[in-house]
Amino acid sequence: MIPSAARRRPDSALWAWKGWRDMARDVWRARELIFRLAYRDLAVRYRNSLLGYVWAMLVPLVTVGLLSFLVSRRVIHMDATTLPYPLFALWGIIVWQLFTGILSACTASLVNAGSLVTRINFAKEALLFSALAQPLVDFLIKVVLVAFAFGWFGIVPPPAALWIPLVLLPLVLLALGMGFLLAVMNLLIRDVANAVGIFASIGMLAAPVLYPPPTSFPFSLVNVLNPVSPMLIATQDLLAHGELQHPALFSAGLVCCLATFLLGWRFFRVAIIRVAERA
Amino acid sequence: MQRSMQYGLADVTRDLLGLDLRSTALRKDEFWGLRDIDFQVEPGECLGVIGPNGAGKSTLLKLLSGIFLPDQGHLLVRGKVGTLIEVGAGFHPLLTGRENIYVNGTILGMSKRDISRKLDQIIAFSGVEEFIDAPVKHYSSGMFVRLGFSVAVHSTPRVLLVDEALAVGDVEFSIRCLNRIADLRRNGVAVVFVSHNELQVREAASRCLLLSHGIAAYLGDVEHAFQRYESLRAKDQNIPRTGPLVFGSSVSIPGLKITEADGEDQPRCGNDVDVELTLRCARAEPDAYLELRFWDSSGHMVGSIDSRTLGTKLSLPRGGSRLRLLIHAFPLNQGWYRVAGGIRRDGEVLGWSRDLISIAVQAPTGFAAAPGTVALRVSQLDVTEWEG
User: What ipTM was assigned to the predicted interfaces of this complex?
Assistant: First the structure.
């Protein structure tokens, strides 16, 4: 039996249950494509480079090295952190880079695919899901770096730190959800990619990445307003204290992450057809 | 923001809120790209789609492939769709040909096992065996397209959509592709073939859809479709013309007429044809010669006239003059041709236009039009026995 497909608009209303089911089905069917595209990106990235994956470690190492020096000489004043400051900052930076890495990879994914998007019919979500690969691999490499750093300071993280991957998952989904929206916008207005780049550098200062979460108003707003903060703080807590110290913040952040992911994905599915029609 | 994008945004919002999904009212500056198109392509059939630029051919293909969705009407596609549109899109320049086969094949919906099984076939068909492990950035554009084409035709579609894909590549490859399409048809694949190349459509298609301004002007027999297309082009004054862009300033060409030798009719293939040229010279030109070039609708120069072949130079007087020449048994087949040309002197252009006139040549009388740009007339045909 040959399957027949009527060409009509997907069930797109937000509350249409069938639409959500179709999304899950489509991404499952595209799994091979996702892995193939991910493999392609990873293979291409360092093909013409000498130092390969060393580049991934360079930025956090140099940033943290300089910053730790400035803090230790009291050029910059920093509240005390439970972990030694270099460890704290290193972890913060690599989590932040995981987030922004996904954000910019997703934003660029559709534009990079070029005429593929408007000429060939395939599950375009695959382009975004596969864009996760490179930032994730980069992150894993940097985790090795962090592990060495912990060893250097002779600190063993508490067993609860093993929960961190579960806390990072919502963060990844948050980035992907925002990425869905940004990728479509970037197709229409190329400035979006630049804006994401600027957010990546300025946003880092507006989240407790290089400094411990502020406790006094209005600075404590960065713990709430920056969408990355709740998950970041949760990982920091798990690393340093072995428990979530702000469960309410974490729960709210979790809901926010999942909602962003689902709504972004849904928006993407509806919008990509309309954009392909008009591109 | 562009109006088109505003509409798009409004549409997305309405989609998400589940408001009326199929509005039929046109908004400002909107138009129907395709209307009242009704056709069916059976397994094993090949439908050729022809029509002038902007008639909606590519839009139709995008609807069939599922990139666009119809705002109105019903469209049903049975089985996997393969496309020969932008072949090689998605090739990564840094990856080798072999790696790109895997990526491209997966995009076209093949499984890894599928690709591995057909890898040798794909490589052999593309004819780039030698370079299959070199990055495709070193490929020539022809090799690039051939590899992309090869992946596409091996992706086991049930419905194959072809859009100008054979425009690139040499004759040998074009024929191989047409054969491959015929193969697929024998295996029950339905093919929709869009091309400006009349010969390829005639080779490939079993039926033809003529689109004009988004409407089906004709659907049926291939031969009739092309005849309708010709008459459509003859009538349609909106064909974009380059205009009489004239090079050289000493001779202008106010008029050129190409007619039947014994009348005012459009020239007919196989008959004697009269060419009449009106010229205006700024000064007397004693050593001039005339050149006319005939271009067919797919942009090939298919014939030319050079007065030097007569062995004499033209001596043109100052002011207006008229040139007449006779072409015996006009060899160009039924179709639409653009005539370029003008007056030259050795090494110098005196007056030249790439777009003097367009002519519609009528089919030869007495026998049915055979495909091809040049009509080859047979005067004798014998049958004798041969012991093989």
Answer: 0.83
